[in-house]
Design brief:
Strand content: under 5%
Helix content: 40-55%
Number of helices: 3
Largest sheet: none
Number of strands: 0
Structural class: mainly alpha
Distance between the termini: 134 Å
Radius of gyration: 40 Å
Low-confidence stretches: none
Mean pLDDT: 76
Length: 166
């Protein structure tokens, strides 16, 4: 079949069974390079050869799977000083003890996220606030004892001058 100009039409554009390429019966050609149609199940190939173990293999610097740190962990997780934080809160200065508890609970979270420097900083802060809480309580106790001693000395001296004794 030829068109009025005498040229044979291109048979690759006509769908199977004849008809025009724009008809509703046209078949969608498969995508190039052996890709399946959208939504079709994918053909997978098993990985051959070397399979890296945990902490091995190539990781692009600065990028990793979420939840996995980039590279191997540096050392053991720093101490969180949670016991000291709780004791300093209960037995010592409450505000500084609460800050120490908050810092100590963030150590494990930061370490798990791969923020090793932040975990070490939080550990140091937890220790620092627990120590400050204990020191503040010791200073307060010393001041209270000194005030009581001075009060009773003044009271005793006043009673002795007036002729009455305790």
């Amino acid at each position: 079949m030829t068109d009025p100009d005498g040229v044979e039409p291109d048979k690759t554009n006509t769908p199977p069974g004849g008809g025009s390429p724009d008809s509703s019966e046209s078949k969608v050609p498969d995508p190039p390079f052996g890709q399946g149609q959208f939504g079709a199940p994918q053909q997978g190939y098993a990985q051959q050869g070397y399979v890296p173990g945990p902490g091995q293999g190539y990781v692009q610097p600065g990028f990793a799977q979420p939840g996995y740190p980039v590279g191997p962990p540096r050392a053991a997780q720093p101490d969180d000083y949670l016991v000291w934080a709780i004791l300093s809160t209960v037995l010592c200065c409450l505000p500084l003890g609460v800050v120490s508890i908050v810092k100590s609970t963030s150590v494990g979270k930061l370490w798990a996220m791969g923020d090793y420097a932040g975990a070490q900083r939080a550990s140091d802060d937890a220790k620092k606030f627990a120590i400050w809480s204990a020191v503040a309580t010791a200073v307060i106790y010393v001041v209270v004892i000194v005030v009581y001693v001075v009060f009773f000395l003044v009271l005793f001296e006043t009673g002795r001058r007036s002729g009455t004794s305790l």
